Amino acid sequence: MASPFDLTLDELRTHRSAKWSRVPDDVLPAWTAEMDVRSAPAIGAALQTAIGRSDFGYAGEPGPVIDAFAGFAREQWGWEVADTPGRVRLFADVGQAVKETIRALAAPGDSVILNPPVYLSFYPWLRDIGVEALEVPMLDVEAGGRLDLEGMSRALADGARIVLLCSPHNPLGYVYSREELAALAELAAEHDAVVISDEIHAPLVHPGSPRGFVPFLSVSETAREVGIALHSPSKAWNTAGLKLALGVTAVESRWPALQAETDWAPSILGQYAAIAAYTEGRDWLSTTTAELQARTRALPALLAEHLPDVRYTPGHASYLAWLDCRALGLGDDPSATFLERGRVLLSPGPAFGAGGAGFARLNIGTSEELVGEAVRRMASALG
Predict the structure, then answer these.
(1) What's the CA gap between 337 and 378, in Å, rounded?
(2) With contact defined as beta carbons under 8 Å apart, do 276 and 46 qualify?
(3) How far apart (Å, rounded) are the C-alpha atoms in residues 121 and 106?
(4) Measured between alpha carbons, how far is residue 31 from residues 120, 280, 360, 361, 374 in Å?
(5) What does the mean pLDDT of the chain come to?
(6) Can you tell me whether residue 101 is helix, strand or coil?
(7) Beta-carbon contacts of residue 127 (< 8 Å; ≥ 6 apart)
(8) Distance between CA atoms of 123 and 128, rounded to whole angstroms?
(9) Dist CA 325 CA 348 (whole Å)
């Protein structure tokens, strides 16, 4: 299969997506989590089918989407989503799923545990619904990261009753072990807490990862009792604008009574795309994850050549690189200097919470040439 990353810079400049349209023409965007890829052929064909049918109404019966996802989860991870009949629902995206679920579970002012440096949108989502972020930072970030289970235990003992987990971890690319997740589930059960596991990057675990992705709800019976898992094809197949996510729980009493409006939020085109992705988009996904692994493995040498003072520990999932720029002396937000002087846009480290000062997140989900151009522009900002 040809590389999905063969789009030229001129082609990308025509895109109306947020990554490309919200920056000046002289800026190279390497910030928000969109990939620069040609869509999976199966998704394009599915959307053409929708166009041919003029099928642009409200999203319909969710069963075919749920069945497609269940088949993917079974074959990819050995997870039997079919064990949860009637406990899967669709949302517009994972952001809506997180906000509506927490809104139903928490009262204003309650605390939600996060593990920073973590996905920057978690923080405004929590502010929007009037709850507080309780940070339990990841340990050993310079070695790739691991969950601070003792810190999680203290936070739960202090009264927090919701954990918002990012699995695999964004921006570290860390893939949690079954043992870590099982221990977290036991802690949550001990304190009558709920774990909301954002697993949007799960299909993007690299083929060379030392361990595969483990769905939280597959870890143990305890995890099934305390967990809600959130999935979407949007990151793995680059379909964020098509608006569809899935929420899964194994215990009906754990699934909050959400507002009926959530049933009308997904897009019918998102349904077409999700079914195609989960049933016919696996070869494309395999090619894409292999290339993402190659980009990840090549980045340390590229940084050593152009930015030897920047430290980076390669992760094992997705296409986001967490760069330690503290030795450059650029202050808390080095991305501001890279943008001003190098005309390359990265995500600012401080937005990822505790431990983010002096860091920046680089999106390497693009061609080898554009990753190299991004790093060279960063280096030029120091001259």
Answers:
(1) 9
(2) yes
(3) 19
(4) 11, 29, 9, 7, 11
(5) 95
(6) helix
(7) none
(8) 9
(9) 11
In the chain, the largest separation of any two C-alpha atoms, in whole Å, equals 59
Q: How confident is the model at residue 254 (pLDDT cuts 50, 70, 90)?
A: low
Q: Give the dihedral sign, CA 165/169/172/178.
A: positive
Orientation of helix 268-280 relative to helix 41-53, angle to 10°: 140
Q: Is the dihedral of CA 230, 232, 236, 242 positive or negative?
A: negative
Instruction: Please say whether the beta carbons of 347 and 31 come within 8 A.
Output: yes
Q: How far apart are CA 338 and CA 363, in angstroms?
A: 14
- pLDDT confidence of 104, banded at 50, 70, 90? confident
Q: Which tens digits make up the pLDDT trace of 57-68? A: 999 899 999 999
- Within its chain, how far is the Cα of 278 from the centroid? 17
Compute the distance between CA of residue 137 and CA of residue 343 in angstroms, rounded to an integer: 31
d(CA 147, CA 139): 6
Residue among 167, 173, 116 at smallest CA distance from 313: 173
Collapsing DSSP states into helix, strand and coil, what is residue 268? helix
Please check the confidence at residue 383 and state whether its pLDDT lies above 90.
no
Q: Are 30 and 374 contacting, i.e. CB atoms less than 8 angstroms apart?
A: yes
69, 278 contact by CB (below 8 A): yes
Helix and strand element counts for the chain (H, E): 13, 13
Beta bridge partners of 311: 324
| Spatial contact of 216 and 227, defined as CB atoms under 8 Å apart | yes
Token pair listed for 343:
């005309």
Q: Which residue type sits at 193?
A: A
Give whole-number Cα distances, 286 to 77, 238, 241, in Å: 14, 14, 22
pLDDT at 134: 98
Query: Six-digit token pair at 170?
Result: 């964004």
Phi and psi at residue 141, in whole multiples of 5°? -60, -40
Whole-number pLDDT of residue 86: 60
Q: What span, in angstroms and rounded, lies between the C-alpha atoms of 119 and 141? A: 15
Is residue 111's pLDDT more than 80? yes
Q: Which two tokens stand for residue 157?
A: 């003992």
Global pTM reads 0.96
Task: Determine contact, residues 368/36, Cβ cutoff 8 Å.
Answer: no
